[in-house]
Design a protein that fits this description.
The chain is mostly helical. The chain has one helix and no strands. The relative contact order is 0.03.
C-alpha cells in the first residue's frame, strides 16, 4: 500500500483485522447495551418502589395532618376546660368568702341572741321581784 497517508509510527491494519475489530467492538457494544438494559430495568423497578414509597409518605402526611387537626381540637378543648376550671375556682373562692362572711355574721347574731337572752332573763327576774314586792 503506497498511499500518501502518514503513519506516525503506528502500524497499519489490514481489512481482515479491521473486520475482526469491528466484530469484536460490536460484541462488546452489544454486551454493554445488554448491561445498560439490565441497569435500566433495575432503575425502573426502583422508580416504581420510590413511587410506592412516595405514595405511602403522602398517605402518612395526610394522616399526620388529620392527627394534627385532632390535636389542635383537643388543645382548644383543653384550653376551654382550663378556662372553665379557673372560672369555677374563682366562683368557689367567692362562695368561700361569702360563707366566711356569713359565718362571722351568724356568730355575731348568736352572741347577740345570747346577750338578748341574758337581758330577757335579767328583765324577767326584775319583773318577778317587782311582782313580789307588789304582793307584799
Amino acid at each position: 500500500m503506497d498511499c500518501n497517508v502518514p503513519s506516525y509510527g503506528v502500524a497499519t491494519m489490514t481489512n481482515d483485522e479491521y473486520s475482526q475489530l469491528i466484530e469484536f467492538l460490536g460484541r462488546k457494544f452489544e454486551e454493554i447495551h445488554r448491561r445498560f438494559d439490565r441497569v435500566e430495568a433495575k432503575l425502573e423497578v426502583h422508580d416504581r418502589r420510590f413511587d410506592a414509597v412516595e405514595a405511602k409518605l403522602a398517605e402518612h402526611d395526610e394522616r399526620f395532618g388529620d392527627i394534627l387537626g385532632h390535636f389542635d381540637h383537643l388543645y382548644r378543648r383543653l384550653e376551654r376546660l382550663e378556662q372553665e376550671y379557673q372560672a369555677i375556682v374563682e366562683g368557689l373562692r367567692r362562695i368561700e368568702a361569702l360563707l366566711t362572711d356569713e359565718k362571722a355574721r351568724r356568730e355575731d347574731l348568736e352572741r347577740g341572741l345570747e346577750l338578748l337572752k341574758h337581758h330577757v332573763a335579767a328583765l324577767q327576774t326584775r319583773i318577778e321581784r317587782l311582782e313580789q314586792s307588789l304582793r307584799q
